[in-house]
Amino acid sequence: MDIGGGHAIAYRPGDEQLNIPVLAGRIRAELEDGCARTGLPVPRLTLEPGRAIVGPAGVAVYRVLAVKRTGDRTFVAVDGGMSDNPRPALYGVRYAPRLIGCPATASPRLVTVVGRHCEAGDVLADEVALPGDVHPGDLLAVPAAGAYHLSMASGYNLVGRPPVVAVADGIARVLVRRESLDDMSRRDIGL
Fold first, then answer.
1. What was the pLDDT predicted at 21?
2. Between β-strands 123-131 and 108-114, what pairing exists: parallel, antiparallel or unpaired?
3. Rounded to the nearest 5 degrees, what angle is found at the Cα of 105, between the Cα atoms of 127 and 167?
4. Residue 16 pLDDT
5. Alpha carbon distance 104, 2 (integer Å)
6. Does residue 35 contact residue 27 with C-beta atoms inside 8 Å?
């Protein structure tokens, strides 16, 4: 009996993670009880932990394009957005981006990380703490991006899909190259 996968992972610090051994134990106990009551043999139980393995293995990296302060709100615009990660817009997934590549020199400030698509729903992370001196050119990492970023990415607004880069032992290797405008226009037949 295969109970599938897609089990919850933690996207932000403090998020509850599914305890797979506990889940398997509960399901096994219910399954054994139900089979005993009906006189059926207990089937072999299988769980697919794909998301629990792949999700935390991937990190999306964005470059900061602009920082806009309006009153008490700060917006950090990045070079991606709902084209490479529609999950926040579609069903409210919340991430915890982090500044990478340079040490933070300012105290944290609550910001809203937005994508490049000029859509009201193009918000990657709302009210997250980033250093107050975040500026264009900085890199933001979004952990737990391995399960759905690539599979859900699209060419929305003719923004090409990002590359996929594997890193092991300090060596980076491109697995999937960045999609270019030329890649997308090859499908155009013309008038």
1. 82
2. antiparallel
3. 75
4. 80
5. 46
6. no
Give yes or no for a contact between 76 and 112, defined as CB atoms under 8 angstroms apart: yes
Q: Residue 2 is which amino acid?
A: D
CA–CA separation, 173 and 166 (whole Å): 5
Q: What is the pLDDT of residues 128-141, one digit of tens each?
A: 999 999 999 999 99
Q: Which residues are catalytic?
A: 118
| Sign of the torsion angle spanned by Cα atoms 99, 8, 175, 150 | negative
- Token output for 162: 């990002």
Rounded to 5 degrees, φ, ψ at 33 are -65, -50
Token pair listed for 94? 């919340």
Sign of CA dihedral 171, 176, 181, 186: positive
What whole-number distance in Å separates Cα of residue 55 and Cα of residue 149? 9
d(CA 70, CA 131): 17
**Residues near 13 by beta carbon (within 8 Å), at least 6 away in sequence:** 96
Q: How far is CA 81 from CA 55, 61, 187, in A?
A: 18, 11, 23
